[in-house]
TrEMBL record, chains A, B:
The enzyme's E.C. designation: 3.2.1.52
Species name: Phlebiopsis gigantea (strain 11061_1 CR5-6)
Protein name as catalogued: Beta-hexosaminidase
GO molecular function, one term: beta-N-acetylhexosaminidase activity
Gene: PHLGI111279
A Gene Ontology term for the protein's cellular component: membrane
Source taxon at top rank: Eukaryota
Gene3D superfamilies: Chitobiase/beta-hexosaminidase domain 2-like, Glycosidases
Length: 558, 558
């Protein structure tokens, strides 16, 4: 009556050995073992940009140090016999079309959405001939190198092998915006933690780091000409990102194929500016905070005041000049209008300019987004500003949909391009309990915890018409950091954030034409997680190891 | 209309500076600043046991390296003026009553529950006279040293100070069993991670490490005479605890005032034994697993078979001989009787012995607990075995109440001593989402996440009569590790597990006689968390730093 042990072994050996994440759009694999030659090397371009040479060196290092064993019963030992007499792969040769000079990865990565060339083809023959990786850009080559790194397993530290040659990959992302958002205001994250996160993002071919750098709790960004804001508004002098730090992050990210979207939240979520500029902030420490904000502390820009508008616009201009991206976010979430009802400065400003509060908000937003346009940047804003307020925004404004996945339809109806960041599918901080004091029975506002499988079932085109599909730029999983610091950054983000990375790279269907599904994804995600751990990212296990070694045996329905 | 900034500063300065965790039973503090003299030293006992000398050295080191700044706006800087001309404390002098030799901490810590002397008195005068720490045992001195370490803050690395001299502490725990349970079967934890956990436990004066060492997923314990069970049933050869490892953990724990309760789960949760002894295990890989277990894999001891009873009893005897504790757990949770309905071996054994399944279970349990009694150990068992089965258990058996806090009443009614481990208050793994495959909408079975404040509101005497209070030994927070490995051990355990540590040390009331409450606890728990981070334990933040610096301002109700 019970399945016998030999049957278990069959299940294990028949597991999907395609461990790539995200899975390429087109993938053909064979069943021939292949090992890397002792002198295996990756042959880069003759006139290689420095960042491509670095990427090649990183790939060579990962292939040498990953020491990843296959997730099957018996682990690497189970493959020994097949690997022993395998053909050797001598090299991987990179190529790019001849042309007028080769751009760097960084240049390609920070271009406007829709212009970045990420496609590549990869061929690993089974007969001992060199493997080939071709792309139209160095960014495409980087994506292909990332795929190549994931093909290899280790036996005893002596043999680096695949069991699936020949391998033919033709790949390109379904959506250009595949992101992760980190809040560095509620709690602070040193540069080294951000860089480690960027590394992990690049391993899943993410393209966008949304740096929610400031908020009400602290203002850790040193903006040239506005140094006092961070000096007074940061948590501490060693909890400030200097312009050099920002440059460091942007460059590090770009070299790994990631564009940095800087986000200075306004006009709400700005209490920290009070410390340096009390004249610009209303209702800081307004009591009770519940009347003036969704979480403590309350504090918002007096956007109706012309001097505050000037201050904010100049702050944005200075901050935007720190970035390389074509995108810049002015925030825009959870503006609380009640804050201004009894704020004398605001009421006087409205009277003086003869505007309603909504008109003043429009004036303010036209000014802040106007300066971005002038600097050649595309403004990014939260969906609240489009759905709850009647603002005049540039047509190319990118909207981040966050409150609910259902809001995407309303944004699309208004004709804006948008990024999916729905709290009901994507928020990494949900489910960790109430963090406010005096609430022993309280739960997370966006309970329950968003599992990787919940995220994975997200449909980017849900309820959209075919003509609206072009408005979907992609999506991202955010981490709001009320209860996070470097201590749990990796464990709360990885491997879960990889879930949406595959949703937006792979799109609706697997290479076989079957729809994406959690069953075939789980073994691959296990593999990615263990590889991340090998590389020093503290990604957490998704199941007991017993289950990771036996795909399907820990499913709810068998 | 808004609270002004000076008002905020008043709130910050008026914050409860008593940062001790758990808070002592009796505590008097003054308001005189005091700094440690440059040559400050802790004067130990003349004939000090080695583990007390080590404890003294650790305390001296922590005091030097904690570099903990007070959690107030302005941090240490806010205290500079008060610290500058403070009196100096030259030393802390330990003392113990003269008698027939001084026992080690380890000896005292592993004694039977109720016999361990943990009380101490600590006096830190404000006038520059030496501080005094007195206890009736070296274990009591260890508890006092732990309190002493938490008194000190750092200014610039030059001054180590308190603002609250004189300080008078008279302290002893409300309950002897203050524990943490770690499951090392679902996923494996190296010794180094267990030791780091023991360190953190000792900082909160916990007394019991419940090592749930084996379960269905893997059997990582090398038991002398039964080496084959781990050799085949562990996840890998480098994922085995050897007898030397176990000795190492037990000694390390005992020197830190912690007794190790070893737990080999039986007769359910034993699938891993199948790998070495298929003859003793029924329904391994029974399909579907839902019929035979609460989670995959199914697999249970054939407890009706005399040979299986002999095997298990001898295994327990050999494992119990590895331990120093007076306690040993035989497991006992989630036994699935359906497993045996079609198990030929079991049915034949029942027929041969002319017993019902329940009678056979009683025979089995009498044998396993009988051998523990013979070895001078007290058996520990899960509440299922008492509530769902009519077993003959020794009167001194300790029951772990886990399914629901409401079960304590039923256990007390049967007259057993018990340990609180209720899933509705204490489970650290709850709320992290479903881990089974093929269940994209599934949540954790014990949703929601158990916040520290939820745990903190637990009443150990809930619904018990006064005469039943003596049955309450204490409580513990468990970590079941379906989704945990070393990567998230610290972040999922700390600082939350400290919450029950205070519940069971401090009891119902604060030193002022007021009931324990989450408002006064939160600033102290923040302090503990930051101190843990300083000492290398990756405890997570409970709130944005803005809130940690401003007690009360992030409360739900103000």
């Amino acid at each position: 009556m019970y399945t016998s042990l030999p049957a278990l072994l069959v299940v294990a050996l028949a597991c999907p050995c395609r461990a790539l994440w995200p899975i390429p759009r087109s993938l053909e694999t064979g069943s021939t073992p292949l090992v890397l030659a002792p002198d295996f090397r990756i042959v880069g371009l003759r006139d290689s940009p420095a960042d491509l040479s670095s990427a090649v060196a990183r790939s060579q290092a990962y292939i040498r140090t990953d020491r990843m064993q296959r997730l099957v019963v018996g682990r690497a030992e189970a493959d020994r016999a097949r690997v022993q007499d395998a053909m050797q792969l001598p090299s991987l040769v990179l190529s790019i079309p001849e042309g007028e000079g080769v751009g760097s990865i960084a240049q390609e990565a920070v271009g406007p959405l829709g212009t970045r060339s990420e496609e590549y083809v990869l061929h690993v023959p089974a007969d001992g001939a060199p493997a080939m990786l071709a792309a139209n850009s160095t960014l495409g080559l980087l994506r292909g190198l990332t795929t190549f790194e994931q093909l290899w397993y280790d036996l005893d530290g002596n043999a680096t092998y695949t069991l699936e040659a020949p391998i033919i990959v033709t790949d390109s992302p379904a959506f250009p915006y595949r992101g992760f958002m980190l809040d560095t205001s509620r709690n602070f994250f040193p540069i080294t933690d951000i860089k480690r996160t960027l590394d992990a993002m690049s391993w899943t071919k993410m393209s966008q780091f949304h740096w929610h750098v400031t908020d009400s709790h602290s203002f850790p960004l040193q903006v040239p000409g506005f140094e006092e804001v961070a000096e007074k508004g940061a948590y501490a002098q060693d909890m400030i990102y200097t312009p050099a730090d920002v440059q460091d992050v942007i460059t590090y990210a770009a070299e790994r194929g990631i564009d940095v979207l800087m986000d200075i939240d306004t006009p709400g979520h700005t209490a920290a500016i009070y410390e340096s500029h009390p004249e610009h902030i209303a209702c800081y420490l307004g009591s009770p905070w519940q009347t003036y904000a969704n979480e403590p502390p309350a504090g918002q820009l007096r956007f109706a005041s012309p001097s505050t508008t000037t201050f904010t616009t100049e702050l944005f201009a200075a901050a935007a000049r720190m970035t390389m991206s074509s995108l810049f976010s002015t925030g825009g979430d959870e503006l609380n209008l009640e804050c201004y009802t009894n704020d004398t400065a605001t009421q006087e400003a409205l009277a003086a300019t003869n505007q309603t509060l909504e008109e003043a908000l429009n004036t303010f937003t036209m000014s802040t987004h106007g300066v971005l346009t002038k600097l050649g940047k595309t403004g990014v804003i939260k969906s609240d500003m489009v759905l709850d307020h009647n603002l005049t925004l540039p047509n190319d404004t990118v909207v981040i949909v966050w409150k609910s996945s259902a809001d995407a339809v309303s944004i699309a109806a208004k004709g804006f391009q948008f990024v999916h960041q729905p709290s009901d599918y994507f928020y990494l901080d949900c489910g960790a309990g109430e963090w406010l004091g005096q609430d022993p029975l309280g739960n997370s506002w966006c309970d329950p915890f968003k599992t990787w499988h919940r995220t994975y079932t997200f449909d980017p085109f849900m309820n959209l018409s075919a003509s609206q599909h072009q408005l979907v730029l992609g999506g991202q999983q955010p981490l709001w950091t009320e209860q996070s610091e470097p201590e749990n950054l990796d464990s709360i983000v990885w491997p879960r954030a990889a879930s949406s990375a595959e949703v937006f790279w792979t799109g609706a269907t697997l290479p076989d034409g079957l729809p994406r599904n959690v069953s075939s994804a789980l073994p691959r995600l296990h593999d990615l997680r263990f590889r991340m751990v090998q590389r020093g990212v503290q990604a957490i296990p998704l199941q007991p190891l017993w289950c990771a070694l036996r795909p399907g045996l820990c499913d709810l329905q068998s």
